[in-house]
Specification:
The chain has 305 residues and is of the alpha+beta class. It is built from 9 helices and 12 strands. The radius of gyration is 19 Å and the shape is globular. It binds glycine.
Amino acid sequence: LDATRHAYKLLLQGADTLDAAVAAVTLVEDDPNDTSVGYGGLPNEDGVVELDAAVMHGPTHRAGAVAALRNIRHAAQVARLVMEQTDHQLLVGEGALRFAVAQGFKEENLLTEKARKIWLYWRQTRGPSDDWLPPPLDKVDPEVRQYFERHTGTVHVACLNAAGEVSCVTSTSGLAFKIAGRVGDSPIVGAGLYADGQVGSCGSTGRGEANLAGLGSFLAVELMRGGASPLEAGLEVLRRVVKQTPARLLDEEGRPRFDLKYFLLAKDGRHAGVSMWLPARYAVTDANGSRLEEAAGLYHRPPKQ
Ligand code: GLY
């Protein structure tokens, strides 16, 4: 909510839609309590935070991205500079880091104490076939234990101005405890985000591998171009993902065991959030104020016992 509020304020001051979206995502990247984005994000299996981010500017149809970026918290700002100051669209790993340092970004350790403890507990309890022993339960912070399930959180922000221009940004630390070098959907244009100046935008969060093969964000925007509403387009993309999901990732009722969400914004201001699993909500700020809106989706999680 703070991020969308901030972006909206900048848009009212006349900011470009991409500048506003990057500024909003920067707030989330700075938040040490968000364990899925930027500083404080959960690390890879070696305990090192690796970030993916992409930006896309609707009016010019240009994009920039970074993947597996270490030591630099503002991955979205670096992605924008890839777009603006190189002839490339995607820089990865060591090259992305060198590019960021050349642009004046300061290197820092992105692993907070909270994220380190969560990672250490995952490492210690990963399985019986290694030399790490589980710690006594009374020595483990309950806050750490609740992160035992692997997370795939991400932030996507889309901005639309009064002129009907739309841009969007996606930033993430990716799948918690991933294999070093794993890149998800977030920095892949057409998958983690897509913007078309004539139509609108879409971005995703959730299991990147489920979104990459179908380029869900590109598909959603193309469905909107064909006349689908943001809601219809988002639900259709989710249905296609289900059809393409291998059996090993389906439960006994044929439902994906993972979550995946899309956030769609049409050039005329209509928007929707859709989620494989409900309930889910997304943040909106417009002339009616800031609020969380309910996402639509395919399946309902059973209530927690
Ligand atoms: N959607 C974020 C990721 O899979 O890395």
